[in-house]
Amino acid sequence: MEERNYPVRGAGLGLRRTMLTPLREEPPEQVDFLEVAPENWIGVGGALGRKFRYFTERFPFLSHGLSLSLGGPAALDEEFILRLKGFLDDHQIRGYSEHLSYCTDDGHLYDLMPIPFTGDAVDYVADRIRRTQEILERRIAVENVSYYAAPGQELDEIDFLCGVLEQADCDLLLDVNNIYVNSINHDYDAEAFLKALPGDRIMYVHVAGHYVEAEDLRVDTHGSDVCDPVWELLDTAYETFGVIPTLLERDFNIPPLPELLREVDVIRALQERPRKTGDDAPDIEVETSHAG
Fold first, then answer.
1. What is the pTM of this model?
2. Beta pairing class for 246-248 and 202-207
3. Alpha-carbon distance 189 to 194, whole Å?
4. What's the confidence (pLDDT) of residue 25?
5. Using an 8 Å Cβ cutoff, are 171 and 136 in contact?
6. Which of 240, 123, 121, 220 is nearest to 175 (CA)?
7. Are 15 and 23 in contact (CB under 8 A)?
C-alpha cells in the first residue's frame, strides 16, 4: 500500500485545560501529537496563553473546530475564519477539521445538527467548504458525525458524505466511534460503511466512547471508555487503509492521566500490530478498561 503523507504520525490526545499541568509535569512518551478546539484558545493570552504556547512549541498540533457551521443557513462567518487562519499560522497547526453538520442559525444552537442528506445539501455544503479552504489557504477535513434523525433524507449517509468530499475536494476526519454509533441507531453494517470510504482522503482518525441508552440506541458522549467493537472497527480501518494517525477524545468524566493514557497505549498497540493474512495473523491482548 502506498505510503501517505499525513500531517502527523502515531497516537494523539485531545488536549483539555485540566490536562495542562499533569501533561507538563509528566510528559507522556506515548503521545505523538495533540489536538484542540480553536474556539477555546483563539485570543487567549496571559499565563494560560503561555501554558498553551509551551505545548505548541513541543508537540505537533491539529485543530478541530466547533462553530464554523458548514451546513448552517446563515452566511459563513468569514471574520472568524480569518481569525482562525491567524491562530493556525501563529501556532503552526498542522491540520484543521470541522464537523459535517451545522450549529447556528440566527444564533448558536449549542448542538451539532444533522444536515439533510440531499443532493442540494451536497452542493451547498461543498461550496461553503471550498470558500473556507480559499480563505484559510489550506485544505481542511470534515468529520463524519453522529446523528439521531435524518430529516428530508434522499441519499444514504455514505453517498452524502462521499459526495461532499469529492465535490468540495477536501479531506476526511474519520470518526470510527460515530460510524459504530450510527450503525446501531440506523441499522446498517459499520464495516461495510467504513470500507466504502475514500481512504486517500483520510487526514486522521478520532476514537472515543459513547453511552448505551438502549439496545438499539447509542449516544455519542466522549465521556466513557472506548468499547471493544469500536477498537475492532479501528483495527479494521488500519487493515483497510493502512495505519492512520489516531486521536483519543475525552471531554468529560476524564480520569487521571495515567489511566487515560492506557487508551492511548491501545491505539499504539493496534498501530504497531504486525499485519498478516489468514492463520498467520497474531492475536493481540490490550488492557482497555479503567475506572472513570
1. 0.88
2. parallel
3. 9
4. 95
5. no
6. 220
7. yes
Strand partners, 235: none
pLDDT band, very low/low/confident/very high, at 263 (cuts 50, 70, 90): very high
Provide the sign of the torsion angle of the four alpha carbons 214, 219, 221, 224, taken in this order: positive
Strands 217-220 and 210-214 come out as: antiparallel
User: Average of pLDDT values for 120-126?
Assistant: 94
Cell 479503567, located at residue? 290
- Closest by CA position to 15, among listed 32, 3, 5, 6: 32
To 5 degrees, how large is the angle CA 270–CA 31–CA 95? 95
Q: Which residues contact 214 (CB under 8 A, 6 or more apart)?
A: none
All domains of the chain, ordered by start, with CATH? 11-280 (3.20.20.150)
Residue 189: CB atoms within 10 Å: 10
Query: Which of 110, 292, 128, 146 has its CA nearest to residue 218?
Result: 146
- 3-state secondary structure at position 242: coil
Please tell me the distance from the alpha carbon of residue 32 to that of residue 29, in angstroms, as a whole number. 8
Please state at what angle helix 228-241 crosses helix 176-185, rounded to 10 degrees: 120
